[in-house]
Specification:
The protein is about 60% helix and about 10% strand. It is α/β, with parallel strands linked by helices. It folds into three domains: about 110 residues, P-loop containing nucleotide triphosphate hydrolases (Rossmann fold, 3-Layer(aba) Sandwich), CATH 3.40.50; about 60 residues, Orthogonal Bundle (Helicase, Ruva Protein, domain 3); about 140 residues, Zinc Finger, Delta Prime, domain 3, CATH 1.20.272.10. Strand 3, helix 3 and strand 4 form a beta-alpha-beta unit. Helix 11 packs across helix 13. The relative contact order is 0.09. The C terminus is likely disordered.
Length: about 325
């Protein structure tokens, strides 16, 4: 490994993972770690050019926008060409085309590209393989569906599954650990977007009795679902994974919106957001009053959301 490593990624998680591997390499050699902000080029230069008084190795981590280092790019290149004994460094940035060109082949360059939303399951399969285990594509897709596309959260969840299971990880293993209450929640949402009042209230009761979801969490979940329904009306049927990424939601919300969003006219959606906001305010003890118990507030909200479409009321 060269003395200077340039780590480039727009994903904070992927950059951190690559830095951890590089850090571990130098720590095994007994190097002490210190960090310097890229926004202070003078401090960077001082850290790279100053050897330890005690002769110990030093690994300098430089984080921040690479453009802040442009003024000392040639100095970094010269340093990387002939690094002082006992000093190594890593520059961590989202992108650094100019610095990468200046450094040439003098540094190890690691470019970690985040997967596209529709490639996240494939990335997860590779991530698990890198940890010495195997995961089926269906298992990875189930985990992405349950948790979303945040790579850090997926990696943590995958580690939990690997700890609790043996052999290849499939959708059944994922379901046992991550789709218990989540499955009930999605069943509830499925009934609600189909305006099935009886079914929605029945599933809502099961969620409330389970105690896993506070009423405020349920109102936030309903807001997410109606945000997906509102966005899906103008999305021109772009891939669900793409729209989910834009909205920072799991794909299930968008799939549900595509499938049943037509049950809600624009006026219904506006009314839903007002009703959800009112219920949220009530649950937080707002000025709209707290006369009803929390579970009654949520039940009234769900009943209202499943009510007659605005178009049907107008026809009546």
């Amino acid at each position: 490994m060269r003395a200077l490593t340039l780590i480039l990624s727009e994903s904070e998680f992927l950059a951190a993972a690559e830095l951890e591997r590089t850090r571990a390499y130098w720590e095994r050699k007994g190097y002490a770690v210190e960090e310097v902000a890229a926004e202070d080029p003078q401090a960077v230069t001082y850290a790279l050019d100053t050897q330890s008084l005690f002769g110990d190795g030093r690994f300098v981590v430089i984080r921040g926008p690479a453009s802040a280092l442009d003024a000392i790019g040639e100095h970094l290149a010269a340093w990387a060409e002939h690094p002082p004994t006992g000093i190594a460094a890593a520059v961590v940035a989202a992108r650094a085309a100019k610095l990468k060109k200046v450094l040439g082949a003098r540094a190890d360059v690691i470019e970690a590209t985040a997967p596209k939303p529709w490639e996240t399951a494939d990335w997860l399969v590779r991530h698990v393989k890198g940890a010495g285990r195997s995961m089926s594509k269906d298992g990875a897709a189930a985990l992405v569906e349950a948790l979303g596309a945040d790579l850090r959260e997926l990696a943590t969840a995958a580690e939990q599954v690997m700890t609790a299971t043996r052999g290849s990880i499939g959708p059944d293993a994922v379901a046992r650990m991550f789709r218990g209450m989540e499955a009930q929640l999605y069943t509830f949402l499925d009934a609600l977007v189909q305006r099935d009042r009886a079914g929605s209230l029945r599933h809502l009761g099961a969620l409330l009795r389970g105690g896993e979801y506070h009423p405020l969490v349920l109102t936030a979940t309903l807001a997410k679902q109606f945000r997906a329904i509102a966005a899906a009306r103008d999305a021109a049927r772009q891939p669900a994974a793409v729209l989910a990424k834009e909205l920072d939601l799991t794909v299930g919300y968008v799939n549900r919106a595509y499938k049943h969003g037509r049950n809600f006219a624009a006026e219904d959606i506006r009314g839903a957001f007002r009703a959800i906001a009112d219920a949220d305010d009530t649950l937080k003890g707002g000025e709209r009053g707290t006369d009803y118990p929390d579970h009654i507030v949520v039940e009234l909200l769900v009943s209202e959301l499943c009510g007659e479409p605005a178009s049907a009321v107008r026809r009546g």
